[in-house]
Amino acid sequence: MELSDYLPIALMTLLGIGFAVASILVSKLLAPSNPTPEKLAPYECGIVPLQDPVERFPVKFYLVAMLFVIFDVEIIFLFVWAVSYKEFGWAGLGAVVVFMLMLIETLAYVWKRGALEWNVARRQRYRRIVAEGHLEEAA
Amino acid sequence: MQGGAWLPIAFEVVLLVGALAVLLVAVVAGRDRRFWGPAAGLAFAGAALAGVLQWREVSTSGAGLFFTAQGVSFAKSPMVVMDGLSAFGAIVLGLVGFVGFLAAWDLVAKVGRRGPELVSLLLLSLAGLHMMMATPNLVVIFLGLETASISFYVVAGFLRRQKGSAESSFKYFLLGSLASALFLYGVALTFAATGSLTLYGGNSIRDFFSSTIVTQPGILLAGMALMLVGIAFKVSAAPFHQWAPDVYQGAPTGAVGFMAATVKIAGFAALARIFGAGLVSQVDTWTPIVAVLAAVSMVVGTVLALVQSDVKRMLAYSGVAHAGYILTAMTAGVAGVPAMWFYVSTYAFMVVGGFAVLSTVSGSDSSKVPLDDLKGLVKRSPEMGWLMTFVVLGMSGMPFFAGFVAKVFSFVTATAVPAPWPANDHGYLWLVVLGVVMSVVGLAFYFRIIGTMFSTPDDQAELQEAGLPVRFAVIVSAVITVAFGIVPWPLIEAVRDAFPI
Asked: I want to staple B102 with a disulfide (CB 3.0 to 4.6 A). Which of A96, A101, B331, B473 is the partner?
């Protein structure tokens, strides 16, 4: 491998950087600049923003997202197997079944651990209030 | 497929089945650890048994390459190798894993309903670690490395509500991912330079070097250097050791021994596989680098261990120094593999035993273990005190302990083969001299630990009795430390066959 073999890569890199810089410069130079408070506000589908966009949201979304990714990847593997299951034969079927059993067992475990329960904290608070007999507080 | 065809991957299969069985039993039968604990123990023991079977198979019918992809264009590249290195590694990993699992039993009790997760992570990590040493394919080595690393990131942060544990996990994750990325980049560059991802077998890196003279080795050198950095990070060799003290200190004490010991075993085995066997033709290029790594590790590890006030950090820096002594053996190239095995297999038990004692003293879920916690340990708990003394003496390399034999073996090996740089017939004599000096300097902090244990305790409070599995783990570690110090010959005979093909 000669160093000159890398010339196309170097050119490509320069081209990429150049294009980005040029686009920003051109839009800065050509676009009229007339900032108003409304224009500077963050865009939220045309509605006047009411609160800080950075917001805490429940960790259970991540949990569901992670479970989703796992089964998404499973589907990717199954597609590969499904388009040529005849060539793979019984060994392929066995491998896919073992693979799926592993994932299903994992799902069973996290299910049992309560990963699919929604609103655990609120339900617990509700139960506690009911148990203490202050039902009107919960309403 | 015949029954024998499964033997090369029996170690991994047993551990994976064990990990799933633990989770399944926990779901079906209940979370009480008496239900699923035996399944995990059986899996570790079964893995060690698989190693023994592999060892017998290798010694009777020879080593072999398995799981060759057929009908694919890059065919003839095997995915699994069964030889002395992988079989011996399976036995050592299985036994150390079993003892480490017993040492973590108190921690398993403390994490309660999350116990099955912790144990199946340990099982999975062990499978990944063996994958690193039982494959000739560089990408599979990387996959094994990641399987183990990701499990250990989680184990380090298992007590996520503790500040130390979360910090430990995060640091390990960030630095470990960087090291994995560097290793993978090294694999890619090596592929670019040689056109192969397979160390041996058909169309391999070895074939490439036997038929080609590399005139411009720039990319190859970069690839080798990056792979070496990745492995040096995992075995915590200086200057890639900065994560080790923080991670060891923050991670739950009950599991640190398992993590520290098994990663070192697999890391050095992978080093022997990639550099000792696969890149054997480049031996003059990489042994000087390994020698410098060894020298820096010994000095940095020993000197920084002297100034620590936390026993976990002290053992972490001592681990850096030990990585240096093991790398000293590897400067002899593939001839250093027996000494590497002797050192790493005895040292692994010392690490597990040492951290198991710390977990009985300061609690298996503790982060910090200040040296004062060990004050008067011999009076408070004679059993733990004396066993810890044996383990620490073993680490320090006292005669009649396994650490001494391991060091001598390593130093003799390093001087047995002529060195390429500085070119001479006596090998890396300068490194051995440095190693001896650093061993003597290291005595200072090992005896600081022992001195603290023999001092008068502040309060005469009896130590809380440790669980039976943990005590068993400590006893096994101490017995191995002493036994292979007095009668090292069986192990020395065994490691002479533990070569990669």
From this structure: B473
Comparing alpha-carbon positions, the chain B residue that sits nearest to A2 is B216
> What is the span of the domain harbouring residue A103?
60-138
ipTM surpasses cut 0.85? no
Whether A102 and chain B come into contact, CB under 8 Å, resolves to yes
Structural domain contains residue A22: no
**Alpha helix ranges (H) inside B29-114:** 33-61, 84-103, 105-111
pTM as predicted: 0.88
A109–B24: do the CB atoms touch at under 8 Å?
Answer: yes
User: Per-residue pLDDT for B94 more than 90?
Assistant: yes
Query: Residue B68: what are its φ and ψ, rounded to 5°?
Result: -80, 130
For the four alpha carbons of A51, A52, A53 and A54, in that order, the dihedral sign comes to negative
The CATH number assigned to the domain holding A108 equals 1.20.58.1610
> A31 lies in a domain?
no
Which residues of B fall within a CB distance of 8 Å from A106? 23
B283-327: pLDDT as tens digits: 999 999 999 999 999 999 999 999 999 999 999 999 999 999 999
Predicted confidence (pLDDT) per residue in B455-481, tens digit: 988 775 667 778 899 999 999 999 999
Residues of A in Cβ contact (< 8 Å) with B119: none
Q: Is residue A72 part of a domain?
A: yes
Confidence of residue A135 (pLDDT cuts 50, 70, 90): low
Of A1, A91, A112, the CB nearest to B27: A112
How many folded domains does chain A comprise? 1
Residue A3 lies in a domain: no
Give alpha helix (H) positions in chain A: 7-30, 37-40, 60-83, 85-113, 120-132, 135-138
